[in-house]
Structure formats: C-alpha cells, structure tokens
C-alpha cells in the first residue's frame, strides 16, 4: 500500500525542568520508581530544549535507531529507551487492532533524531528534556490519544525526571504506592500563567560531563547514607505540602526558602554517601553565598539558588527583581577571576 512505502514523521520539542524539591533515590531501579515525590518548574523552550524528530517506514533497515546531537546511540543496550519504545508501540498496536484502516506503524522500524541546544549530561536536565521529547515525538507519530499525565508513566521509565517535562508550569511527580508504577505520575500543580513573574537564571559554570552520573549516584546514596531515609520519609513530604501552598499563594520568600533548603539537603545526602559524592564546587558555593548576601542586603528574600547533579546554578527570582538579582549575579560572578573555569554563560528563562 502507499502508506507502507512512505515515511511517517513527527517533530516536537520538550523543555528542561529544574526541580525545587529534588528527586534522588529509587525504590525500583527498573521502573524508575522514586523514594520521594518531587516538584519542578518547567523552563521556557526559548532557552533550553530538546528538538526531536521521530519517523518510521517499512523501508527502513530492521532495527530502530536513535541519533543524539549527531551521534548514533546504542539503543539495543539501553533498557530504558527500549522500554519507552515498546510501551509506545503497544499503545499504537492497540489502536491498529481496533481500527483496521490505520497504517500499521507499530510494525515499522523507528528512526529518532534528537538535538539539545545546551550541553548534554552536564547536570542541566538533558535526560529529562531528551526522554520527554522522545516520548512526545513517538506519541505524536503514532497519533496516541493519551494525556501528558498518562505519557509521563512512559517517560519516567526513560529517566525519572523526564516525566516532569511533559507539562508546563509547576509540576509534581508523585511517588505513587503501587509496585507496578502505574500511579507514579507527573501532574501539573499550577500552569505557568498562575505565576508568570517567575524567572530562572541558569548559570553554567562547567559544561563538562559530571563526575558521577545521577543514576549511579542516587543508588550509592540510597545504599549508604543515613541522612537519606530521613530526607525521603520526613523532610520531603512536609516540603511538598509547604511548597505547593507557596506556589498557590505566590509567596516567593516561602518558595525560595524551601527551594534553597531542599537543594542543600539533597547535596548533604550526597556528602553523607559513602564514598561521598560532590556535585557542587567552589564556584557553586560562591553563588550560594552571593544569593544569601543579596537577600540580606535587600532585607527580603528576592532570590533562590538550586543545584542538581552538577556544579551549575539555577537562580529563581521574580521579574520585578530582575536588575537586583540577575544584574548583581552576572556582574559579580561573571567578573569573578578566582573560581571560574568557564565557559560561563547564562540564560534567562521564563516559566512556560
Ligand atoms: C531532579 N535530579 O529532581 C534531580 C535533582 C538530579 C538532582 O532527576 O536515573 O537523570 O534517569 O531516573 O532523572 C537526575 O536524575 O535519573 C535528577 P534517572 P535522572 O531533577
């Protein structure tokens, strides 16, 4: 038939999300089920995003392929990518089984081409945007009717944090309780329009690949840190409630304090791991001190830092404090001669 000869194609982008309550630790390493809920802010795709095209054709060579930033990837050895693709294929297959007039896309090899506009694996949530874009692109290619929340179950299996990049605004990933992970899903807590003044300043202090990959680092923490269980069981549930209330009330000082404290607690569990894991460096710590200095000098909390599994900082603030926060941070850290290894660049992002 004509459709079996042709190439079917869908292109999409997915945004980066930056957690304010951090995901760190799995209770199931195959399904990527977390030990604690997390909450993130989705950044504008004008700043950081993954662009992905998924296509399929009966004429393609038999194996699915994935190309990332111009380099072919070994997907046959990537259980996570294979899990995402087989879940998506099964959903397409059930559509085809129900409607014989649909082209049999599920039987065709897939070709996925993906590109980040920012450094990969430098602690800038590249796997989050990457797997979210992969899932969205293939779901579009297959015309799947599933909601973003339902697709988050699939993206989660690619990379935990990816489930939060299928939605905009303020997004919670609930741990869920079921062993099969069917209730471990992301959901929008508030749309970007609820708090449109929110801004993020992304400070790239190093675009190097991080020392300890997240997947490995969090397992070391789960297995060796005594602080970890306390954070997961007691600290995070309280903070999830508190930050959701802060978002609801658009209470920036509250939002900021919880964000900074949770970043610090996460990095404390890394330091408490054995052997200890260091993601922040001297430059990161200079950014921490500067944010506290700015807040103290202004006499109210106008800025909040957060750090992921790498030294780069993200600083949240409100648009009215742009000059005060972004201006000061760029002037002081951008001119720093003691700690920077470069490249130093910054991106201003709206929530979107
Ligand atoms: C987060 N991070 O909530 C936390 C904060 C890093 C620090 O999610 O093993 O790449 O693929 O599920 O999602 C990084 O972990 O880990 C991460 P996997 P992922 O954003």
TrEMBL record:
Reactions catalysed, semicolon-separated, are: (R)-5-diphosphomevalonate + ATP = isopentenyl diphosphate + ADP + phosphate + CO2
Tagged with keyword Lipid biosynthesis? yes
Name the SUPFAM superfamilies for this protein.
Answer: GHMP Kinase, C-terminal domain, Ribosomal protein S5 domain 2-like
Question: Which residue numbers delimit the Mvd1 C-terminal domain?
Answer: 200-352
Might you give the EC number(s) for this enzyme?
Answer: 4.1.1.33
InterPro entries on file: GHMP_kinase_C_sf, Mev_decarb, Mev_diP_decarb, MVD-like_N, Mvd1_C, Ribosomal_Su5_D2-typ_SF, Ribsml_uS5_D2-typ_fold_subgr
* Name of the top EC class for this enzyme: lyase
Pathway listed for it is: Isoprenoid biosynthesis; isopentenyl diphosphate biosynthesis via mevalonate pathway; isopentenyl diphosphate from (R)-mevalonate: step 3/3
Domain annotation Diphosphomevalonate decarboxylase-like N-terminal: ranges: 14-186
Task: Give an example GO molecular function.
Answer: diphosphomevalonate decarboxylase activity
Concerning its family, UniProt says: Belongs to the diphosphomevalonate decarboxylase family.
NCBIfam families of this UniProt entry? mevDPdecarb
The protein depicted here goes by the name Diphosphomevalonate decarboxylase
List the source organism.
Answer: Penicillium steckii
**Lineage, opening ranks:** Eukaryota, Fungi, Dikarya, Ascomycota, Pezizomycotina
């Amino acid at each position: 038939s004509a459709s079996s000869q042709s190439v079917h194609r869908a292109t999409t982008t997915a945004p980066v999300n930056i957690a304010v309550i951090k995901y760190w630790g799995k209770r199931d390493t195959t399904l990527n089920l977390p030990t604690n809920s997390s909450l993130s802010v989705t950044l504008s795709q004008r700043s950081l995003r993954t662009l992905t095209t998924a296509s399929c054709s009966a004429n393609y060579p038999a194996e699915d392929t994935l190309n990332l930033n111009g380099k072919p990837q070994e997907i046959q050895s990537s259980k996570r990518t294979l899990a995402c693709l087989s879940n998506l294929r099964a959903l397409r297959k059930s559509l085809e089984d129900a409607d014989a007039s649909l082209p049999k896309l599920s039987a065709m090899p897939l070709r996925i081409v993906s590109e980040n506009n920012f450094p990969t694996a430098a602690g800038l949530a590249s796997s989050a945007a990457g797997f979210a874009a992969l899932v969205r692109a293939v779901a579009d290619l297959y015309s799947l009717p599933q909601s973003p929340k339902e697709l988050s179950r699939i993206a989660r299996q690619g990379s935990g944090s990816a489930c939060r990049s299928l939605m905009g605004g303020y997004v919670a990933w609930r741990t869920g309780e079921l062993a099969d992970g069917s209730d471990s899903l992301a959901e929008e807590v508030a749309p970007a329009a609820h708090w449109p003044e929110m801004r993020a300043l992304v400070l790239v202090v190093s675009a190097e690949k991080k020392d300890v990959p997240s997947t490995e680092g969090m397992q070391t923490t789960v297995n060796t840190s005594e602080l970890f269980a306390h954070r997961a069981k007691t600290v995070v549930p309280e903070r999830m409630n508190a930050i959701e209330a802060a978002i609801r009330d658009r209470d920036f000082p509250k939002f900021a304090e919880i964000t900074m404290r949770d970043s610090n607690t996460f990095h404390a569990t890394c330091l408490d791991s054995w052997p200890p894991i260091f993601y922040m460096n001297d430059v990161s710590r200079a950014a921490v001190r500067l944010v506290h200095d700015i807040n103290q000098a202004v006499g109210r909390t106008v800025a909040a830092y957060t750090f992921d599994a790498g030294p780069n900082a993200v600083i949240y603030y409100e648009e009215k404090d742009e000059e005060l926060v972004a201006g000061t941070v760029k002037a002081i850290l951008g001119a720093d001669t003691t700690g920077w290894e470069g490249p130093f660049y910054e991106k201003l992002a709206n929530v979107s």
